[in-house]
From TrEMBL:
CDD domains: SAF_AH_GD
InterPro entries membership: SAF (IPR013974), SAF_UxaA/GarD (IPR044144), UxaA_altronate/galactarate_dh (IPR052172)
GO molecular function: lyase activity
Isomerase keyword on record: no
GO terms under biological process: D-galacturonate catabolic process
Keyword Kinase recorded: no
Residue stretches making up the SAF domain: 11-82
Protein name per the record: Unannotated protein
Keywords linked to the UniProt accession: Lyase
Pfam families: SAF (PF08666)
Length: 91
């Protein structure tokens, strides 16, 4: 059974298909990732170490950058990522 969804070979994150608990080992598609924190279903997990300032790659494209170092197996979300896209909406 698949536990995460790898969207592109160049990605440094994967989408969790179910809730992941601390210490859970994901062995799938030639990856082995140990969750270092709880991650809700639909959120992202780091598939490798991501240095502060480095790009967050999803669908093979940079979607933002890390605002802090992100450990392999860590939850990747708004608390440690800043999107690269600026809003075009008027306030």
């Amino acid at each position: 059974m698949r536990e995460v969804l790898f969207l592109h070979a160049d990605d440094n994150i994967a989408v969790c298909l179910g809730d992941v608990v601390v210490g859970h080992v994901i062995s799938q598609d030639d990856h082995e990732i140990i969750a270092v924190g709880a991650i809700p279903r639909g959120h992202k997990i780091a598939t490798r170490f991501i240095e502060k300032g480095a790009g967050i790659i999803k669908y093979g494209e940079r979607m933002g950058h890390a605002t802090t170092d992100i450990a392999k197996g860590a939850h990747v979300h708004t608390h440690n990522v800043l999107g690269d896209r600026l809003s075009t909406e008027q306030a």
